[in-house]
Specification:
Elements: E1 7-12, H1 17-28, E2 33-40, H2 46-54, E3 58-61, E4 73-75, H3 80-86, E5 92-95, H4 103-112, E6 115-118, H5 121-127, H6 131-136, E7 140-142, H7 145-154, E8 162-169, H8 187-190, H9 200-208, H10 210-223, E9 230-234, E10 240-246, E11 251-255, H11 260-269, H12 302-313, H13 317-333, H14 341-352, H15 361-381
Parallel strand pairs: 1-2, 1-5, 2-3, 3-4, 5-6, 6-7, 8-9
Antiparallel strand pairs: 8-10, 10-11
Domain 1-deoxy-D-xylulose 5-phosphate reductoisomerase N-terminal: 9-126
EC number: 1.1.1.267
Binding site for 1-deoxy-D-xylulose 5-phosphate: 121, 145-146, 170, 193, 206, 211-212, 215
Length: 391
């Protein structure tokens, strides 16, 4: 990558928090990155202004709701994302959307050998261990802050020398809240993260720490490290994003301000490192820095331990867990269940599954949708206390 050859970038999920971080990087380094394609669910009100600013050649919308500049070529339909991936106008794809709509596009991008910055949890878990070789080859660059930190710590290392991977978590807004008060937590309280600026769903996942369990599952798929070697710790300051311990007793950690733009910059520019020029990012002050870590309590974060159990059981339980969590969080945000019921629903769905593994991508997507529908039904009927077997 050089100033003379700008990288052609597509951002899928361009109006969300992670997509916005990637676009901030492209905005700050226009001599290195050219945004040639944008994709979103509906586009929100921000998309027309993004089109005017970046002048993408391709725009993909699932449900167009806003008028776009005439210069933008609008693609719709189920195959639109695949066409975007296959376009010669795209060299690097940022997968920053949520849900399973981009799974086949991610698989196609891997087949074509295109560069990928990956932050889509559902797609990652559905593709599973297929990701590890692409990560090690540098084709896939993890974009979530913790996975990005692990990726940087593992650069140039022999994976066989890894003793354990450690993912940090802030502990969310209720780390010190008395357990008996958690039932009364409102969606507004749960969606207010003390450190990170994120969407409502991921903020709730942070409050339950189910997101950290999902990240443990992802770390296994991304790096090919056995699940029993991947651990979560609470680090309230969110200065250290991940640690890697090696068999010789050494430990690496990545320390930086909690800002997604830093992970996006690393993923987009790798193997180069570009001088920081984005606004409102101050280096971590080392003078007097106190790094505190603690073990998550199962009584406070039961959903995290359900995820750890899903990792122990193996496929397809990670897919089941993430689908159940999406449905449970949705019903909580709609005010239909209590905050503490989220983990109960996820546990009921994971424990009740008695089907076998599913290998191909289409079957795994179908399992995800079936599991999500079952979790929604369980939540709406408030029936998670009665164990029901399903497949």
């Amino acid at each position: 990558m050089s100033k003379n050859t700008r990288k052609k970038v597509a951002v899928i999920g361009c109006t969300g928090s992670v997509g916005s971080s990637a676009l901030d990087v492209c905005r700050a380094y226009p001599e290195f990155f050219q945004v040639t394609a944008l994709a979103a669910e509906t586009g929100r009100e921000a998309l027309p202004s993004l089109c005017r600013e970046f002048e993408p050649k391709i725009v993909v919308l699932r449900e167009p709701r806003y008028d776009l500049p005439k210069e933008a070529e609008l693609w719709k339909g189920e195959d639109a994302l695949l066409r975007l991936i296959e376009s010669d106008e795209v060299e690097h794809i940022v997968f920053a959307s949520s849900g399973v709509a981009a799974v086949k596009a991610l698989a196609r991008a891997m087949e074509l050998g295109k560069e990928i910055s990956l932050a889509n949890k559902e797609s990652a878990l559905i593709l599973g261990e297929r990701l590890a070789s692409a990560v090690r080859a540098g084709q896939i660059r993890p974009l979530d802050s913790e996975h990005n930190a692990l990726w940087q710590c593992l650069a140039g290392e022999n994976y066989d020398h890894v003793e354990r991977l450690i993912l940090t978590a802030s502990g969310g807004p209720f780390l010190r809240t008395p357990l008996e008060q958690l039932d009364a937590v409102t969606p507004e309280q749960a969606a207010s993260h003390p450190v990170w600026s994120m969407g409502r769903k991921i903020s709730v996942d942070s409050a339950t720490m189910i997101n950290k369990g999902i990240e443990l599952l992802e770390a296994h798929d991304l790096f090919g490290i056995p699940g029993e070697k991947i651990l979560p710790v609470i680090h309230p300051g969110s200065k250290v994003h991940a640690l890697v311990s090696f068999i010789d007793g050494a430990t690496k950690m990545l320390l930086s301000p909690p800002d997604m733009r830093l992970a996006a910059l690393t993923a987009l520019s790798w193997p180069m490192r570009l001088p920081l020029r984005m606004k409102k990012i101050e280096p971590v002050e080392l003078d007097g820095l106190d790094l505190h870590f603690e073990r998550p309590q199962e009584a406070r974060f039961p959903g995290l331990y359900t995820a750890i159990e899903a990792a122990r059981r193996g496929e397809p339980y990670p897919v089941i867990l993430i689908a159940a969590d999406e449905a449970a969080v949705q019903t909580f945000l709609e005010g239909k269940i209590a905050f503490s019921d989220i983990a109960k629903i996820v546990s009921a769905i994971v424990d009740g599954y008695n089907g076998g593994d599913v290998e191909d991508i289409s079957s795994r997507i179908a399992l995800y949708e079936r599991c999500r529908a079952r979790a929604l039904k369980l939540a709406n009927e408030r029936a998670w206390g009665r164990k029901k077997v399903w497949s």
